[in-house]
Amino acid sequence: MPLTTAPDPVSTSLSASILHLLLPHHRTTGHRESAVNAGSFQLRRISAFVREGAPVVFTLPGFPCKSPNPAKVLGHLPDQGERLSLRFLDSLCRDIGRIYPPGARIVICSDGHVFGDLVHVPDHHIDAYADALRTLIAASGLDRLSVFDLRDVLGDLSHTAKRTHVHDRYAPSVNALRAEVRTDEQTLALYRGITRFLVEDTAGFTGTRSALQRECRIRAYGVIQRSRAWGDLIAEHHAHAVRLSIHPQPAGAPKFGIRLLDAPDAWTTPWHSAALRRADGTWTLMPSAAAARLGQLVHRDGRPSHFEHRP
User: Fold this and answer.
1) Number of Cβ atoms within 10 Å of the Cβ of 267
2) What is the rounded CA–CA span in Å between residue 250 and residue 260?
3) Closest Cα partner for 16 from 52, 47, 51?
4) Phi/psi of residue 125, each to 5°?
5) What angle do CA 194, 198, 203 make, to 5 degrees?
6) Maximum distance among all Cα pairs of the chain, rounded to whole angstroms
7) Which helix (H) or strand (E) holds 148?
8) Of 247, 271, 256, 262, the residue nearest 77 (C-alpha)
9) Residue 246, helix vs strand vs coil
10) Cα torsion for 250, 193, 167, 153, to the nearest 10°?
11) End-to-end Cα separation, the chain, in angstroms
12) Which helix (H) or strand (E) holds 277?
């Protein structure tokens, strides 16, 4: 898409209105009041699409696979948490279309195969999750959403060969990441968050807790390496898109952190949790074991879907 048209007051105002629709859902590492200043980078990207009269394209890395910890999730396939999140994302695009007729679309960049070996999820589970995600999007008529994964880039190569290709071409070195963790607060927070998830998601570890933590700290660097590599690959294939993230992002960052569903922890995602419908009809995410203490399990299409709060 050419990005050479000069800005004008109308497109600038419209772009700001589009950004304003995202702000209530901002997932940030800063204070809530800083959110209004969070989207300067995204505003420039949105404005480029608006000046061209083209649909605004967002990329969202995420929806990789379910956690392997059965105390956190209901299985290895998408459930009500993903269903609600996809509807939310489609509704954002629909809201944008109401004020900007060309509309918007979100490319979900499913990254499970990028680091499946590091999070100990088998590749056939990741394939099943991604295929079910596409089916869910089509069956629900969420035509503003699409899925992009390594199959779209590297075709029928083995999963191991795909991971090796992405890592070798795009990943930063471990030494560079270690230096960044020591000096950058946001990278340190990401490293700690991923380490915590890896510890929580590891099942069947026979060693000590401290040994597990050491092992997960090593794997966390690998996950960040692959995540950075995946981000660079996405940027190469979707060069002009507005970049969203399911991780909290500081104000003014190149990525805009977005909250998919309500959860007590800013790092919680549908693929690390189960959905619970509260008595007032609202939804939240929490570990499936915790949700089971509060609600009754509901099945949909023959498999566990979510919990309904008990009276």
Assistant:
1) 16
2) 17
3) 47
4) -70, -40
5) 170
6) 63
7) strand 145-148
8) 271
9) coil
10) -70
11) 54
12) strand 274-277
Q: How far apart are CA 108 and CA 61, in angstroms?
A: 6
> What would the pLDDT profile of 233-251 be if each residue is shown by its tens digit?
999 999 999 999 988 887 7
Residues 164, 151: Cα–Cα separation, whole Å = 14
- DSSP-assigned beta bridge partners for residue 283: 277
Cβ pair 52, 100 in contact under 8 A: no
Please state, in angstroms and rounded to a whole number, the distance separating the CA atoms of residues 234 and 116: 18
pLDDT tens, residue by residue, 165-202: 999 999 999 999 999 999 998 899 889 989 998 998 88
DSSP collapsed to 3 states, 174-185: HHHHHHHHHHCH
Buried b (16+ CB within 10 A) or exposed e, 104-127: bbbbbbbbbbbbbbbbbbebebbb
* Closest-CA residue to 263 (of 253, 276, 249): 276
Reported residue count of the chain is: 311
Which of 172, 151, 147 lies closest to 59, judged by CA?
Answer: 147
Q: How confident is the model at residue 7 (pLDDT cuts 50, 70, 90)?
A: low
Lookup: tokens for 16: 């700001």
Instruction: Look at residues 238, 221, 20 and name the one whose alpha carbon lies nearest to residue 109.
Output: 238
Q: How far apart are CA 66 and CA 74, in angstroms?
A: 9
Q: Rounded to an integer, what distance in angstroms lies between the CA atom of residue 125 and that of residue 240?
A: 32
